[in-house]
């Protein structure tokens, strides 16, 4: 029977994700030569060629992709085994590391942690603020146990590495400066603000979301100011410097100006929780997921 080495298979999967031996070594805290040696040994054990030269890089062979398809099932089963063993050994205790984007921390993670302290005091949550791409790299590599991100920037539901849970549909409201002529207008539409100066990020996910929402409403927003933090964006709106789209999770914290719910063509974003496939049955992790669902339900 062919020998399957879990450690080496994990290195191969990380190489498929990272693309280069150097980045794989960095992700796994190994040296590039150690990565290459482990993969050479794995190829010898399996009796197939796993890598081929592609200029100064390496490329996975068809045999490597075949191995990886089976590897995902193996890792999922190991996660389930770990989950069952953790439940047997620890019962209602354990540590769960959560990677979450900035607005999800106060809106979802903090209420969930507060509820867990009351209901399951043995479950300890460690929170790490992350960007979407970083959170999934950490999740895949075992750096976090649960990742919170927007659906638009999460791996697809067909990704065999993860189990996804839709937590929340978060509408986007529009923040208007004090005294804006449309502050009390009935049936406010996004297109009604096409002539206003807009405030949104210069790049990244939120910039894409804001521009896409306006373009769907039929106009290209004039970007008067650029900011990526909600404190800065809301401060500029309140100072009369422009209008902005603001997630409902954030708009509830606005202290000045006017936040209006759009009556028509209201854009939304979806908040996703993801765990490594098979790990969702771990007692501590399942408690955290349940608490996040409850926190999301309270915002609907």
UniProtKB/TrEMBL annotation:
Organism expressing this protein natively: Streptomyces avidinii
Positions of the HTH lysR-type domain: 4-61
Domain of life: Bacteria
InterPro entries listed in its UniProt record: ArsR-like_HTH, LysR_HTH_N, LysR_subst-bd, WH-like_DNA-bd_sf, WH_DNA-bd_sf
Name of one Pfam family that matches: HTH_1
Alphabetized UniProt keyword annotations: DNA-binding, Transcription, Transcription regulation
CDD domains named in the record: HTH_ARSR, PBP2_LTTR_like_6
GO molecular function, one term: DNA binding
Entry coiled-coil feature ranges: none
Protein name in the entry: DNA-binding transcriptional LysR family regulator
Family listed: Belongs to the LysR transcriptional regulatory family.
